[in-house]
Automatic annotation (TrEMBL):
Organism of derivation: Rhodanobacter ginsengisoli
Keywords attached to this entry: Membrane, Transmembrane, Transmembrane helix
Gene3D superfamilies in UniProt: 3.30.420.380
Protein name per the record: Type II secretion system protein GspL
Superkingdom of the organism of origin: Bacteria
Compositionally biased residues, Polar residues: 372-395
Length: 395
């Protein structure tokens, strides 16, 4: 084991413990099982459930093989097969026949030791030692067993039982090298390499690994490579999908912007037309209001005709933009014209300009009279009409 691997091992152990303590492994296992059950029965074998453990035991010169968690024997052979295996460099036929339908990538073999040859001790260690259990256990071997570290293979597992005082309970599992090495040598002689050395517990195993790391088999994982390639393809497809989604969003945004700009131009045109309409309506209203508030020439003519006596006649009648009215004419009694215009609602401020002069030709008085147009109030034209009616109907 290299120095880099040794330095990373505590970190990997910490991550492995955190992963196992999380609910994710159980959830993924349940989810994968549910998805596998949805597949046709003949397809389910293509989707394995991970490592498939098979247990080897050596009892009274007899080797047995069974599946983890099952008590039925799958194969058995005696030590006499060892010599034939050495000569032929092949596994025992019984083992090969029992494992021929098992996926080689998922196949795992564990050598189970009897409880009589394994020493187990329960230790209470500080929680700070959780990241370095193997190193701490190495110092405890001399105290807890009659052997030293060089004489044994050992493993440590954390127990579920809680401990008090900021400590944790662990179990130290120890087997002597003189006990395990001959068994491993016999297996190698039969062409069998194991992935773990554990302790037999009912139909299963304890869950530790006493196999020295340097004797662990080197495995190739083509399925893992395929899974990595598939994962990379999924990531690539995800990136492409996200890129396509962003592209579509950008295209939709650009289209929306162009539509907004087009609508903005149309809205500006509508606003300009509305403003023009308002201006025209305002001008028309102004003209209507001004016409409404302005006395018409016909009304002034009618008022002057009704107010002035029949004996008076005009030579000139003018109205300027300021509402100034000019009367120039002749009358037998020009001075009485002011009294005639006094009660008018349209003509006010009447006065003579200059002096009244007699006309020797007509015998009447020539006058020039100025006045102002008085804008009528609401209903102001009705009294004039009434006056006109009275005047017209007078005897």
């Amino acid at each position: 084991m290299s120095t880099a691997t040794q330095s990373l091992r505590p970190l990997m152990d910490r991550l492995r413990r955190a992963w196992r303590a999380s609910p994710m492994p159980g959830f993924l296992g349940w989810w994968g099982g549910e998805l596998r059950d949805l597949l046709p029965r003949r397809w389910r074998g293509w989707f394995g459930s991970g490592a498939d453990w098979y247990l080897l035991q050596h009892i009274d010169a007899q080797w047995t093989l069974r599946r983890n968690g099952h008590g039925d024997l799958l194969a058995d052979w005696d030590d006499g097969v060892e010599a034939a295996a050495v000569e032929g460099h092949a596994r025992p036929d019984a083992l090969v026949a029992a494992l021929q339908k098992v996926d080689r990538e998922d196949l795992r073999l564990a050598l189970l030791l009897p409880a009589a040859v394994v020493l187990r001790r329960t230790l209470a260690l500080p929680r700070a030692a959780r990241d370095n259990l193997l190193q701490v256990a190495a110092f405890e071997i001399d105290r807890q067993t009659p052997f030293n570290v060089a004489q044994v293979y050992y493993a440590v597992r954390e127990l579920a039982e809680p401990a008090t005082g900021g400590r944790l309970n662990v179990e130290l599992v120890v087997v002597t090298r003189v006990t395990l090495d001959p068994l491993l040598a016999r297996l190698r002689a039969q062409g069998i390499s194991v992935d773990a050395v554990d302790l037999a517990m009912a139909d299963g195993r304890l869950g530790v690994n006493l196999l020295p790391p340097e004797q662990a088999p080197r495995r190739s994982y083509p399925r893992r490579r395929l899974n990595l390639l598939l994962a990379g393809a999924c990531v690539l497809l995800l990136v492409l999908v996200l890129g396509e989604w962003l592209h579509n969003r950008q295209a939709a945004l650009s289209q929306m912007r162009s539509e907004v700009e087009s609508m903005r131009g149309e809205a500006q045109q509508v606003a300009a037309l509305r403003q023009q309409l308002q201006d025209n309506a305002g001008a028309a209203g102004f003209l209507v209001q001004r016409k409404k508030n302005t006395v018409s020439m016909i009304s002034l003519w009618q008022e002057a005709t009704l107010r002035l006596p029949d004996s008076a006649w005009l030579e000139r009648f003018s109205v300027d933009n300021t509402g100034q009215i000019g009367f120039q004419g002749q009358s037998p009694q020009a001075a009485k014209l002011l009294d005639a215009l006094k009660d008018s609602r349209l003509i006010t401020d009447a006065s003579f300009q200059g002096s009244i002069q007699p006309d020797p030709t007509t015998g009447k008085e020539r006058f020039y009279l100025t006045a102002r147009v008085q804008q009528p109030t609401a209903g102001g034209s009705k009294p004039a009409a009434s006056t006109s009616t009275n005047r017209t109907g007078a005897p």
